[in-house]
Amino acid sequence: MSELTRLSAADLAGRIHAREVTSVQVTQACLDRIAAVDPAVRAFVHLDAQAALAVAAQVDDKLRRGDPPASPLAGVPVALKDVFTTLDMPTTCGSRTLRGWRPPYDATVTRRLRDAGVVIVGKTNMDEFAMGSSTENSAYGPTHNPWDLDRVPGGSGGGSAAAVAAFEVPLAVGTDTGGSIRQPSAMTGTVGVKPTYGGVSRYGLVAFSSSLDQGGPVARTVLDAALLHEVIGGYDALDSTSIDAPVPPVVHAARAGATADLAGLRVGVVREFRGDGYQPGVLRAFDVAVSRLSELGAQVVEVSCPSFDYALPAYYLIAPSECSSNLARFDGMRYGLRLGDDGTRSAEEVMSLTREAGFGPEVKRRIMLGTYALSAGYYDAYYGQAQKVRTLIIRDFAAAFERVDVLVSPTTPTTAFALGERVDDPLAMYLSDLCTIPADLAGNAALSVPAGLSDEDGLPVGLQVMAPAMADDRAYRVAAAYEVARDAADGGPLTHRVPGIEVVGEALC
Q1: Could you give the CA distance from residue 509 to residue 503 in angstroms, rounded to a whole number?
Q2: Calpha distance 202→315 (Å, rounded)
Q3: What CATH number did the domain enclosing 495 receive?
Q4: What pLDDT, on a 0 to 100 scale, did the predictor assign at position 342?
């Protein structure tokens, strides 16, 4: 493995901008790494090496002319979850129904990456239409966890997390609806951030659940995540839910947190996020992480958020209801897959045949759940009640943040489970998002930072840090301070210590 692929995005950017190394060299190193290990990891569904190298060359040319870099990440490679539209690459959302579809426009996130000179190398695998917790629901096959190729990388954004964990790229962009950035990050030992809802534009993000979907960064360090957050974040007039306010000072918070303690900060441990269903090794790693926060000077207290116990059932009424509406557009009439159009069938028959073949089992399950929850006679009993629970969860967060500055919990109840283990048990699969869903329902900022390895199976555990809306910088400050303390105690960054990463490389390079 090239030394360049081991460096952080911040280090790579510094070297590129100082002209110690070229963006073309860095991009080629990533492409070589992808060629070597992705046949096993399967993080990518589309690569465009030629376009990536062309963008990298443009960055290098500008730097040689003495022009300032377009952004602090100019010239650094990134992978983009295949749910963001891209003019020059297919956008499939992991679904057969969009196989080969080339959108007529770039998503705002895509455009901001291009404007910043960030090099998009390709699109990453995902659960179909972002519906899943393991990246096994993709029409293009599952992604494998680089720590153990027989285990899932989490979902729905397992491709983005796996690409970063396997050192294929230093950065990736994912989306979080019920935990689809944070949960894969916890299972792959990476940093994953769900910004405040409305903090990153949803324009061009193919909608699953419009009141929940939110794009965000995946990285190997807290600072790298913050740098990417500032590139993709900010107000967008094309998104009616976009917040018309400056991006919170996340880069400053990450830098400050890495050089300071947490004296005076109040940290609340969520009482409801432990007990039955939680892997003992995950809880032990979490308790060690909380102890380190205390050692850094934070005041740690237990906080109860009783409505969190109802977040999972509320989410699985709200999200499917919104998905049943959003996915109605995939009807075989305008774009994407179209079956049965032989001149003998009605439009309704063509739609039925197209959707039967184009949607996978999980997507069909959620469409049916949502359609039922919105149907006459059941709306108030299901969707309406779920929205009332959502209000209670928002109130629990508000009450908690009157007592503490941030809340912490395990990111996931368990470490990465075996491929195929939960495919036939939807409830067990849904429980993977038990800890991440409340922040999505409330729209708060939340992130997952690696919290070491479980002493049961040697797999990564995530520490979730939750902050109030538009206080994303608080979460970054805590995570950055913790990251430094963790690395000092453990002898270095988590991903640089695990032999499993090298096994992937040595087996295929």
Answers
A1: 10
A2: 19
A3: 3.90.1300.10
A4: 76
Name the residue range of residue 204's domain: 3-308+390-504
CA dist., res. 98 & res. 86, Å (int): 13
- C-alpha 61/C-alpha 58 separation (Å) is 5
CB neighbourhood size of 335 (10 A): 15
For residue 136, the Cα-to-chain-centroid distance in whole angstroms is 16
- Which among 463, 487, 467, 491 is positioned nearest to 477, based on CA atoms? 467
Residues with Cβ within 8 Å of residue 1, at least 6 apart in sequence: 33, 36, 167, 502, 505, 509
In a domain, 379, yes or no: no
Is residue 128 included in any domain, yes or no? yes
- Residue-wise pLDDT for 443-483, tens only, equals 999 999 999 999 999 999 999 999 999 999 999 999 999 99
CA angle 6, 12, 13 (to 5 degrees): 160
Q: In degrees to the nearest 10, what's the CA dihedral of 267, 270, 275, 276?
A: -140
**Residue count of the chain:** 509
Residue found by looking up tokens 């963001």 in the block: 84
Enumerate residues 6+ apart whose C-beta is below 8 A from 246.
234
Supply 5's token pair: 């692929």
Work out whether the CA dihedral 471, 472, 473, 476 comes out positive or negative.
positive
User: Which parts of 5-68 are beta strand (E)?
Assistant: 44-47
Cβ–Cβ < 8 Å for 271, 497 = no
Q: Is the pLDDT of residue 361 over 60?
A: yes
pLDDT tens column, 3-18: 999 999 999 999 999 9
Q: What is the pLDDT of residues 374-384, one digit of tens each?
A: 998 889 999 99
Separation between Cα atoms, residue 187 and residue 499, nearest integer Å: 16
Query: How many domains, the chain?
Result: 1
Q: Are 216 and 181 in contact (CB under 8 A)?
A: yes
202 is a domain residue: yes
In a domain, 409, yes or no: yes
Q: Which residues does the annotation mark as catalytic?
A: 81, 156, 180
